[in-house]
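Preliminary data (for renewal application), magnesium ion complex.
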Amino acid sequence: MKIDKIVKNFKSIQKGELKPIKPLSVYGLDIIACKNLNKQFMGIKAIDNLTINIPQAQTTGLIGPNGSGKTTLMNILTGMLKPDSGEIRVRDKIRKRIKSHELRKYRIARTFQDGRLIEQLSVEDNLLLPVADNTIFGGLKEVKQDDYKARMEQVLEITSLTEHRHKKAEELSYGLRKLLEIGRLLMQDAEINFFDEPFTGLFPEIVEKVCDIIGGLQKQGKTIVIIEHNMGLIKRLSDHIIVLDHGTLLAEGRPDFVLKNKAVREAYLGV
Ligand SMILES: Nc1ncnc2c1ncn2[C@@H]1O[C@H](COP(=O)(O)OP(=O)(O)OP(=O)(O)O)[C@@H](O)[C@H]1O
Ligand SMILES: [Mg+2]
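Predicted structure:
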């Protein structure tokens, strides 16, 4: 690409224009983005005219004070919530909203802040549910026969859940439940992976395990977005940071640069 075109693309990103052109930012291509996005809950602006770009094959730390709109943004980008207005672009497709049944098509997967395990199902079945075409229990046996079986073995190994595979989700400790939640994401082999507070409440050795799992995804060139309040982990894992405040973009950029920013330190870090 010629240099003037790169500069022009970069300027259009800076202005917040969303173009279906594979824009080139300082972080490389972006893969998912929103423009002038709005979402209110009973008059509270959870997302307020927000325009951001998530770089492809990079890890983005999504940070901000409690109630700043991080989970709401993730819910909108993963089809759990319909925005009031604005646009979402996934690769070159511009949409008013993403629908939850389209996630597989867009190769998007996520974990939940509050966990979404099916308590009465086994670890194995919880892993298979996200990849089963048919979520009616009868369908699960068929899924086990096909390609997912090999992937499930790998995921059980990576998440240290092999010995717990036949236990019901409700029998697992808190840490293992968080790993099972991540295992469900890994089963989907998505390209864009969202994690909503994957480290909260974990013992140090499980924190390290989750860091290793995320490191594995990074090596595979996956796009990762992590919501996390622990700045040490955010600095360690992120290539790029987006800071939200009252549903707006407070700052974005390289971790060192963003975490030194005066407005970020005042609004978020309280220093
Ligand atoms: N379903 C909902 N109904 C009503 N208000 C909501 C709902 N979801 C979020 N909100 C409100 O929207 C705002 C943003 O909430 P959100 O959960 O996105 O914040 P967050 O940045 O993820 O916070 P935290 O760090 O505490 O998880 C808050 O004021 C919250 O109370
Ligand atoms: Mg949240």
